[in-house]
Amino acid sequence: MVIYNPKDWFKLIFQFHKSDTFRMLTPAMLGLGLLTGIIEYVIIGVYHLEFKSTIMIHSLLGFVLSLLLVFRTNTAYDRWWEGRKMWGGFVNSSRALAIKLAAYLPETEKEERRKLALLLANYFTASKDHLRNEVHADSWEKIPGIDNQQLALKNHVPNAIMALFMKEIVQLTRQGKLSETYLRTIDLEIRNFSENLGACERIRHTPIPYSYSLFIKKIIFLYCISLPFGLISDFGYWTIPIAMLVFYAFASLEVIAEEIEDPFGTDSNDLPTDEIAERIKGNLLELLG
């Protein structure tokens, strides 16, 4: 995720980041400009044809297309924001659980407290990789008695790590170091983890319907490819930059929506899950040692 100052207008206007849609769409814009130039040359320079302006038709189609793109962008942003709320829930629930464990387990149980903290830290690290369809066992904390490479072979790695965490909790309860009441309160926080991860998986594995996405791309293409015929009588060769500008405006909204509808990757506009996972680990180690 890119960190920036939204009040620095001058810098943002003239900055060209790798995630900037202008850079991404430049080849398509140049292609459209070239095609528009050829059309203009053939119509004006060769055959001297006169076209009646169809700007009214394009205005009506542009209004409909704008409504579609607004809905598309809002839907994608809702997915991005819901993902952020789920990871915010991870932060809050992990802190609450760490505070409870720090109070329930005596400070003399340093090894157990640290083991639980590291298991939870590995759970969140594995969760953010799981949402990217990746497994990086080398980035997990090493815990005595637990083989990270074996855990990495599981179909659902976060669930496997959380199962080990629960086994530790149950074992401490049987040893009398935690009461049944404490176990029930811990279970509530763990349930929150599972629900949040399930919500993230729902976002990750449920893309925008194919037909809807395909229709928007087609209508943008048809609108922009027919635009030269609607503007030629009024603007002549100035139609070339105008068509490129209109394409840039409409296509950029679709490109942005495509990027943020799956917010758990490593693109510039995705959620900073790496930083959030590290922040959670820091909180856990600070509270539990």
Structural Rg: 27 Å
- Give unreliable regions as ranges: none
Number of helices: 10
**What order do the helices and strands follow?**
HHHHHHHHHH
N-C termini distance: 30 Å
Measured by DSSP, the beta-strand proportion falls in under 5%
The helix-and-strand class reads mainly alpha
Number of strands: 0
Average pLDDT reading: 87
Largest sheet: none
Described by the principal axes of the CA atoms, the overall outline is elongated
Helicity level:
over 70%
Report what the structure shows.
By secondary structure, this protein is an all-alpha fold. It is built from 10 helices and no strands. Helix 2 crosses helix 8 and helix 6 (157-174) runs antiparallel to helix 7 (180-205). 27% of the residues are buried.
Give descriptors for this structure.
mainly alpha; 289 residues; 0% strand
Summarize this entry quickly:
The chain is an all-alpha fold and 289 residues long.
Summarize the topology:
Elements: H1 9-13, H2 21-46, H3 55-104, H4 110-130, H5 148-151, H6 157-174, H7 180-205, H8 210-235, H9 239-260, H10 273-288
